[in-house]
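Field: COMPLEX_INPUT
Field: COMPONENT_COUNT = two
Field: RESIDUE_TOTAL = 615
Field: MODE = joint
Values follow.
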Amino acid sequence: MLRHGLITAVFCCLIATALTITEGGGWAAHLVYSLSIGTVSWLFIDCGRLLLTGHHEIHWPGGPWGLLLVVAGVFVGFFVGNLIGDAWVGAPAFDFLDIRGHKLATAAVITIVATVCMCFFFYSLGKSKHMQSQIEVAQRNATEARLKLLETQLEPHMLFNTLANLRVLITVDPARAVAMLDRLNSYLRMTLSGSRALSHPLSAEFERLADYLELMSVRMGERLRYTLDLPEALRDVPVPPLLLQPLVENSIRHGLEPKVEGGEITVRARQEAGQLVIEVIDTGVGLDGAPPSEGSSFGLEQVRERLATVYGAQGALRLAPGGTGGTCATLNFPLPV
Amino acid sequence: MTPTALIAEDEPLLAQALKAELAAAWPELQVVAIAGDGRSAVREALRLLPQVLFFDIRMPGLDGLGAVAELADCWPADQAPMPQLVFVTAYDEYAARAFEAQAIDYVLKPVQPQRLRKTVARLQQALAARQPAATPAVADEALERTLAQWRQVLSAAGAGAEAVAPPATPLRMIAASDAGGSTVRMVPIDEVLYFEAADKYLRVLTATHEYLIRTPLKQLLPQLDADTFWQVHRAVVVRSAAIESVHRDEAGKMHLMLRGRAEKIPVSRLYAHLFRAM
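Field: COMPLEX_OUTPUT
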């Protein structure tokens, strides 16, 4: 606020100088009038806006209040400022109202134009500052989200267990080790670059799910069985990359892993009334099996957010008990025409 | 006597690998069983009474820490000395730190032969050292030491994984939904006599009522004042001031009675030290 005052004062000095040059007369007198009017307007408007807005983000009252404040500021500044000026030069009070019409008009116009300009200037300054900070916050959030996504996908426990399995396979079953390494390779490539690409075909998405599920089934042995069902016609539908990954991960981590005998995961895509419907069904411990942990809700949250970003209100994700115990996550969004 | 070991590991390949590595590093060791989950690990351990346990931490059903807590209670210490414990973990820095602090051995997956050889050397030393424990007093002392070590590692590893930083202020009220789930009851913590973990819920018991909440005991524990509430069992935390008496039955199992409640509350061997007569 003080900064605003200082800028106002400098601006007033400029006006006084301009008046001295164009109209003649003492610079000091012009300066006193100009400074008085400017300072009073500034005090009135700045205090007014703080009172009206408290400590909002863009310190400026919205709508008619903002306009009213500027108009009131102009009037109060003009009258009180001129009174102070008159007192200083020794003229009788309200002398400024009596002087010849065009001079009064000139003074009023200068006050109005100057005040409106200053207000607009400060308003824009505040707004751009606010926008800047908004942008920074948004950028920070996006980076954090991407990091967290990466962290969940590259969960160290998963990675190290996979490596441990790979190490065993290299000696006992080299052919399978090579196959597993290839899966791990494409899984890592996708995870590391996937968070940047905007979309890829559904068939690629299913491929990545197969990579992940294959890695997991080497680890879990007979405890994990899975089926991926993608109709030929839907292979090329573009989808956001790794959209389904968190759902399958949840099925394994919260559905099958806690279950001693393991179970089955089915991922199915179908077309229904212009919509693409994808189901992730598991026969795990079910929704009541474990209290919802932070990890699982982050995964779901993330899928919902991505659906909302790409498809707006037309995309949805529902979580329901599966037919055979377990959980069924159903995701739907409009097929591109 | 041939040293015996049990491996509890839910990933079949890793269990086989550990067995193979052990065969190389310690040829005399006989792996008597491989269990794929915590429950069967406890069952097999009690049946076979091995001298060494290799326990994975993340296992379906009962996890490694839970299995150890159960074994601490059920292990027939008069028949066989408490087993040597080695945790096997892929990546679990909290737990690993707890193991370091309590000198509990652990092996990181993938198992490194060199690291495993060190563990084997330590195990051999420990097994040799405990052979001459002839008198009951010495045996008792050894049992106490082992239990204290296990207790520390369980509380540190369990709490570390769940709640990283305990909140600054202890919990004052508990919001619990009643049976129908339509009403939330506010229960002042001062009225709670004990908490008991039951499957998916945590039972909150006052002198007159029972409430259910979904917060796991592990998460609630750091929010309770440690002097007011004592953990006496893996699944039970009681108000210390309400304890009326503690009893030991013929089999050596302990339970306690609370003022205002009629139930017998089990006391785990791990927490029996709280009630040693003054």
